[in-house]
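Deliverable D5.2: sample structural annotation.
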Amino acid sequence: MIAPTSFFADYGGHIRILEEIRGLQARGHQVTVCTYHIGNNVPGVRIRRSLDVPWRRGVQVGSSRHKLYFDVMLGVTVLRAALATRPHIVHAHMHEGALLGYPIRQLGHVPLVFDYQGSLTGEMVDHHFLHPQGALYRPLRWLESRINYLADAVLTSSENAAEVLRREFQYPAARIFPVIDAVNAARFQPAADAAARARSAAHRRELGIPDAAPVVVYLGLLAPYQGTDLLLEASRRVLAVLPETRFVIMGFPGVDSYRALAEALGVSHRVVFPGRIPYAEAPDWLGLGTVAVAPKLSLTEGAGKIPLYMAMGLPTIAFDTPVSREFLGPLGIYAARGSADSLAAQLIATLGDPAGSACRGQRLRVVAQQERAWDVAVQQIEAVYDRAWAWRAGARFRGQTPLPARRTPLD
């Protein structure tokens, strides 16, 4: 498995990678993860890291010019790991991973499965690393299209991502397999036991939140494209109407700058930033919540935090995007994308209807248990492995004729 990121860090795509590994291991697979030199080790997960870069120690989030040489060094690690382990499958996350996995596919004559978590250029635009009218946009868009076709099969973290591949890149639908972001509903559940309730109560006391105060929770990266700025704008409007409400905004990076923004907006007395929350502790922290919020603006990336909210039985307010609707369906509460006023209005309405909101949250948990379980998702991944092997071998699979891979300059 190739993860061109600072694995493991407690956010987003890293959680998907970790839960896939755990699920595959539980079903008897031996997984070796090749990743950057930075990140946390995970007990029970075999990790091979790229060569150390002492001048870059922090977790690398999003697009960066430093990733260019990170990926070169990771490519060496991938080759060494392949020679040592002789893999049966190369499971590559993100476009850089697919590019680095392609030589192993060719040399080892094994399938390459691309775990697609969003558009490469779309992410760069979201992170303000690339401008759609800039000189580099078209060449990078071309490169993204070529990388898409290097794999034998593509997993997507949402149906929306699958539609992006079909519509914008004319990728063959028969080679796309949505494996939607899921959740371990046994680990993420509301008030699981007395010990869990006690831990959540301790966090509430630690943050100085009264027992009766309603709490809006957010867990994820802090960034403009994640809607963090708009959430703080909305909090000012909410607190003008419901002054006892507390906002617990959990995540990183840029905690200090967002604390300063909260101070400038006059909401720092009701908004707290606990910082980075270890994934293992996330259920206890989310247990503080009355309502959860997912104000992500991106139209191409997934929304892995939403299944966690659902499993915790939290009524969830999100900006109205295809991915949000895909996860939440009719049980979601939607604000107009990019509007702090709309987000505030939905928060006020939801907090003002505690009985109805609690019922909605309970129904969301049922959906998470029945439709968003990682054990089912991992079985889907295994089925994709089988199909990729069949195509790679040039054989028929379940009565279907293998599709030839589109020729690329790398073939």
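Annotation notes: The longest helix spans residues 67-85. Residues 395-411 have pLDDT under 50 and may be disordered.
The annotation will be released with the project's public dataset once the embargo ends.
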